[in-house]
């Protein structure tokens, strides 16, 4: 069996989140909680229980809200191309979304997200440049807002990567540094709202550790 522990801290909100996942065969059992779970003694605040089979389904249960969220994933071949579909439904919020992606080759992919009810729809193109595909460009078009978002990722040897994102509607600029290794990884990110006169960054740090049980 394998276990994964993930910790996350958002500086501007002073919120800490931790996730413990245990891999048991094809399934994964996961528990997520925040600092509010233990702030005034053990409680159910911020507690989420999950059961997941990678590539098949995810079932989340928010304990304090008594809310269920589930995802179903499937893949199939169409004209020798791989199509991936994900169906997501949150019961309490009555929110349903469908994600689909079409993989043309290892360097080109098109994906779409559609939210039922609201009619929000986003179409994203994923392109990896070069023989080693270390430079990734992701333009995204928001149909409902008639606006574009952009992401650019540069991968380096040793597992490091830098990512920059920009949302044209909110004018949010994001910068992210990732480092992945066999047993652990961490991510540090900062976001700026260029529309604000005083541009204080929102900082977030996240780290993941993998263990053999």
Automatic annotation (TrEMBL):
<dbReference type="GO" id="GO:0022843">
    <property type="term" value="F:voltage-gated monoatomic cation channel activity"/>
</dbReference>
<comment type="function">
    <text>High-conductance voltage-dependent solute channel with a slight selectivity for cations transporting triosephosphates, dicarboxylic acids, ATP, inorganic phosphate (Pi), sugars, and positively or negatively charged amino acids.</text>
</comment>
<keyword id="KW-0813">Transport</keyword>
<keyword id="KW-1134">Transmembrane beta strand</keyword>
<dbReference type="GO" id="GO:0034765">
    <property type="term" value="P:regulation of monoatomic ion transmembrane transport"/>
</dbReference>
<keyword id="KW-0934">Plastid</keyword>
<keyword id="KW-0472">Membrane</keyword>
<protein>
    <recommendedName>
        <fullName>Outer envelope pore protein 24, chloroplastic</fullName>
    </recommendedName>
</protein>
<dbReference type="GO" id="GO:0046930">
    <property type="term" value="C:pore complex"/>
</dbReference>
<keyword id="KW-0626">Porin</keyword>
<dbReference type="GO" id="GO:0034426">
    <property type="term" value="C:etioplast membrane"/>
</dbReference>
<comment type="subunit">
    <text>Homooligomers form large rather nonselective pores in plastidial outer membranes.</text>
</comment>
<dbReference type="GO" id="GO:0015288">
    <property type="term" value="F:porin activity"/>
</dbReference>
<dbReference type="GO" id="GO:0009707">
    <property type="term" value="C:chloroplast outer membrane"/>
</dbReference>
<dbReference type="InterPro" id="IPR034626">
    <property type="entry name" value="OEP24"/>
</dbReference>
<keyword id="KW-1002">Plastid outer membrane</keyword>
<keyword id="KW-0150">Chloroplast</keyword>
<keyword id="KW-0812">Transmembrane</keyword>
<keyword id="KW-0406">Ion transport</keyword>
């Amino acid at each position: 069996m394998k276990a994964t522990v993930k910790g996350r801290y958002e500086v501007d909100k002073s919120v800490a989140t931790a996730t413990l996942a245990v891999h048991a065969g094809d399934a994964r059992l996961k528990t997520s909680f925040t600092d509010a779970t233990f702030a005034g003694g053990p409680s159910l605040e911020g507690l989420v229980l999950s059961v997941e089979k990678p590539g098949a389904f995810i079932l989340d249960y928010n304990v304090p809200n008594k809310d269920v969220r589930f995802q179903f994933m499937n893949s199939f071949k169409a004209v020798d191309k791989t199509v991936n579909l994900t169906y997501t439904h949150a019961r309490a919020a009555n929110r349903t979304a469908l994600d689909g992606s079409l993989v043309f080759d290892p360097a080109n992919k098109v994906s779409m997200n559609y939210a039922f009810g609201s009619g929000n729809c986003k179409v994203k193109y994923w392109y990896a440049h070069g023989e080693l595909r270390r430079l990734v460009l992701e333009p995204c078009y928001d149909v409902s807002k008639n606006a574009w978002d952009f992401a650019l990722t540069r991968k380096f040897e040793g597992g490091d990567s830098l990512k920059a994102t920009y949302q044209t509607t909110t004018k949010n600029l994001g910068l992210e540094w990732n480092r992945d290794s066999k047993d652990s990884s961490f991510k540090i990110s900062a976001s700026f709202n260029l529309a604000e006169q005083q541009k204080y960054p929102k900082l977030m740090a996240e780290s993941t550790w993998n263990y053999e049980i």
